[in-house]
Structure formats: structure tokens, C-alpha cells
């Protein structure tokens, strides 16, 4: 039987957070990889016809409707399996704290810093500016974490899945997380989770296959 949902992703990109969430929740979702240069899926579909944004992730629902932004995709996936506790219930203060964290990660960290640093054609002055923001941003994340095991609440959530991806990228831009012991310990713990480890292993293999 065809899976009800389809995730469109790029190996080791921000869509990895959605892949982690799928495995954490045990959801029947098919993952399709796209070529970011041609915007064509591995099955030959024109990705622009799936997502008008042209970037990942996108989640096609059983209804045929498509979610096109990471925070909405993550929350939708989490809400399909409430017992996995990947997102607090709607209407609770904790849910709005989750939204707060996702907005912060997507705008202040992902968009403002890594979108520039990981874009080969970005001007050097823009990259220098983005790099100058990374250390103080990691300081802020360390303060948010404090001595807690998770970014929001008492359970691994989709905010943790997203933060894991962003922290993975730090080494690609020459930033050693050991300068932030709280973050380094947090990152190590999350990477040891079976679902996180499985998603990272699958996408690393796919990334290396494409680079060969």
C-alpha cells in the first residue's frame, strides 16, 4: 500500500530534522531526495511542481496538499503521533514555547547565519558577517539549554531535531562545539538517540553516494 505522506529532502540539509522526526515517531512516510541544482527528484519529478519554494523540506499529505516550511512540516509530523511526545499539545504554554524555539532556530540561526555560510556563491563580506554572528548565537543557545537535556520541555522534541542539524553544520564552517561544553554534551546525547543516528547514517551515505 502506498504511504500516506511523502517527504522531499536533500541529504544532510535542514530536511534531516523532518527525517529524524519521522523515525522518532515511526511514521509511514516515503522520503524522496532532490537534486538541488536541477530541482528534480530521484524519480524524475520537477520539484518546482511540488513546492513553489524550490527548497526543502516539503511534505505532501495524503490529501495531496503540500506543506512547504520546515517548522510546519515538523509540527504536522509530530502531531500525527502525540504519544511520541515530539510536540506538546496545542493550547498549552509548552506548545507556544516550542513554536518560539522553532521560529528562533529557523530565522536567527538557520536563515541569518547558515544560509549564508553554506552558500558557495555568497559574497565574502556577507559570509564574514554571518560568521561573526555564530559565536554569540551559540552563547545564546547555551543559555537557553542551561542544564536541561532538551531545548523545550522534558522530552526530545522537533526543536531538538532541528537544533541537531544546525549543530552538525558547525564543523563545516570551522566552529568547534567544544568551546561550548553544554552544547557539545547536548549534541553528543542527541546523536546517540537511535532515530537520530539512523537518520544521520542514512543521509550521510546518500550524501557520499552523490558526491562520489
From TrEMBL:
Claim: Transferase is one of the keywords in the record: yes
The keyword Transferase appears for this protein: yes
GO function term, MF aspect, one: transferase activity
Residue ranges constituting the GST C-terminal domain according to the UniProt record: 91-212
InterPro entries the UniProt entry points to: Glutathione-S-Trfase_C-like, Glutathione-S-Trfase_C_sf, Glutathione_S-Trfase, Glutathione_S-Trfase_N, Thioredoxin-like_sf
PANTHER family reported in the protein's UniProt record: GLUTATHIONE S-TRANSFERASE GSTA (PTHR44051:SF8), GLUTATHIONE S-TRANSFERASE-RELATED (PTHR44051)
UniProt name for this protein: Glutathione transferase GstA
Organism per entry: Phreatobacter stygius
Amino acid at each position: 500500500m502506498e504511504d500516506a505522506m511523502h517527504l522531499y529532502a536533500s541529504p544532510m540539509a535542514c530536511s534531516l530534522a523532518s527525517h529524524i522526526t519521522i523515525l522518532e515517531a515511526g511514521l509511514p512516510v516515503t522520503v524522496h531526495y532532490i537534486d538541488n541544482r536541477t530541482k528534480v527528484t530521484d524519480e524524475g519529478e520537477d520539484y518546482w511542481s511540488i513546492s513553489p519554494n524550490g527548497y526543502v523540506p516539503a511534505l505532501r499529505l495524503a490529501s495531496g496538499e503540500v506543506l512547504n516550511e520546515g517548522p510546519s512540516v515538523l509540527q504536522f509530523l509530530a502531531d500525527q503521533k502525540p504519544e511520541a511526545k515530539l510536540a506538546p499539545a496545542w493550547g498549552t504554554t509548552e506548545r507556544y514555547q516550542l513554536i518560539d524555539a522553532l521560529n528562533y532556530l529557523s530565522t536567527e540561526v538557520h536563515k541569518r547565519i547558515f544560509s549564508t555560510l553554506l552558500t558557495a556563491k555568497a559574497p565574502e563580506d556577507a559570509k564574514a558577517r554571518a560568521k561573526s554572528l555564530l559565536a554569540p548565537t551559540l552563547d545564546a543557545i547555551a543559555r537557553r539549554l542551561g542544564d536541561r537535556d532538551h531545548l523545550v520541555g522534558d522530552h526530545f522534541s522537533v526543536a531538538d531535531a532541528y537544533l541537531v542539524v544546525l549543530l552538525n553544520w558547525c564543523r563545516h564552517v570551522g566552529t568547534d562545539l567544544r568551546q561550548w561544553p553544554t552544547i557539545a554534551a547536548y549534541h553528543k546525547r542527541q546523536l546517540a538517540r537511535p532515530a537520530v543516528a539512523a537518520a544521520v547514517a542514512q543521509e550521510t551515505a546518500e550524501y557520499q553516494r552523490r558526491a562520489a
